[in-house]
Amino acid sequence: HRGGLGEKVKLSSIEKKTAVAATKSLGLNIAGVDMLRSERGPLVLEVNSSPGFEGVENVTGVDVAGKIIEFIEKQIERPLNRTKDKVGV
């Protein structure tokens, strides 16, 4: 929001695991996780429980809101006690 530009990148498996772990640690199923790449591995800057996806959608061409709806629909089809186990990336 402060003049930064989005860039499409391929996430490494450790970056994906870090984002999922950060999301789960806050008891969330869906979140936007801001990270920096470093020599020590991915560093989590913040986890957004209500993130804006406009920039991500513009850069990737992915309908993020649609993907979230699909994720929620799949969770509704499962028993309620299993929804805490799955987080989408």
At CATH's second level, what is the architecture?
A: 2-Layer Sandwich
What distance separates the N and C termini? 22 Å
Biggest sheet, strands in spatial order? Answer: 1-2
Could you name the CATH homologous superfamily? ATP-grasp fold, B domain
Total number of helices: 3
Domain unit count: 1
Round the mean pLDDT to the nearest integer and report it: 87
Identify low-pLDDT runs: none
**Which structural class do the helices and strands define?**
alpha+beta
The fraction of residues assigned to DSSP E strands is 5-15%
* Biggest beta sheet attributes: 2 strands, antiparallel
Provide the gyration radius in Å.
14 Å
CATH topology: D-amino Acid Aminotransferase, Chain A, domain 1
Total DSSP E strands:
2
Helix content: 25-40%
How do the helices and strands follow one another from N- to C-terminus?
Answer: HEEHH
Tell me about this structure.
This protein is an alpha+beta fold. The chain has one domain (13-85): 2-Layer Sandwich (D-amino Acid Aminotransferase, Chain A, domain 1), CATH 3.30.470.20. It contains three helices and two strands. Strands 1-2 form a two-stranded antiparallel ribbon. Strand 1 and strand 2 form a beta hairpin. The protein is globular and about 40 Å long. 6% of the residues are buried. The mean pLDDT is 87.
